[in-house]
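Q: Got a minute? One more chain.
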Amino acid sequence: MLMFIEGSYRNDLVGRIGGHRAAWFDTQMTIKFGLNVEHGNLQRLLGDCEGVVFEPKRPNPSVGVLILSGSSGQIASRRCELLADCGALAVSIRWFGGPGQSTGICEIPIERFISVFDEFENLGLEKLAVVGVSKGAEAALLLSCIDSRLDAAVAISPSAYVWANLGPGIDGVGHPYRSCWTFQGSPIPFIPYSDRWSPGTEVPPSYSGLYQLSLVEFSGVAEAARIRVEMAKTNLLLVAGGDDKLWPSDAFAREIILRRKRAGLDSAYVYLEGAGHRPILPGEDAPVPSSVRSCGGSEVADRLLGGMAWEAMIDLLKL
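A: Always. Here it is, folded:
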């Protein structure tokens, strides 16, 4: 069973961050603060998930952005704050690993994210967007194909395919493999992981070879597991580094671009040769190096790619 879920944290405060009115909610504790958005709407934005909502300083925002972290399981508070600085209503939820959720990325219902867009729409926001990194980018691309209301999707270090679960499902079982995602109660087709792959001697290991080998070994199911990006009318921004050692995000991004081009659809692409799996946006701290997987890149290159991605993202969202 493949599993590299890392530690997460919880938020249970409401207050001001960087001049923004911000609210954190978990399933155990909810505190009211004087927010422009009605308190009940804030709770509905998050549904049953722990999460954070950042309002922009200026009233009546027109853009709502859902931010999805990857297998870290973190709530992307700082990224929400940065987007709120630019005028968006920004939301991030803990979509696995929280109370009542699976501890791994296993059969996560896509409706968990769609419900946030429902509430964005109820709030009268004119533009709906999603920003995802890694497994969150996989979800963001699926959402771009499923929910026609999305105006923009940003996929940072994306996959062109749906993969098998990372860790146990809600039943505590991690193997045999199941899909990471479900939609309307059914598992989305996925590619399993090869049992013939071994990580070698590199510490921490690179998993890129695992994904490449699995694509070849399970080529018979790869087409069914491919994310149908050519069906998405959403404005799409892809971000990848050439030194991504977690999975081959550059190759995946180029495949996505080609598929969409053949369908007459444009895609924006931000790429940097020496950057890794975790671009660092302006104003973000460098992530703590992982002890269980190699992400590649360097802080300098990852910050440079993050700066390039940020400019493209703000332009895409028209903030």
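A: The chain has a mean pLDDT of 87.
Q: Perfect, thanks.
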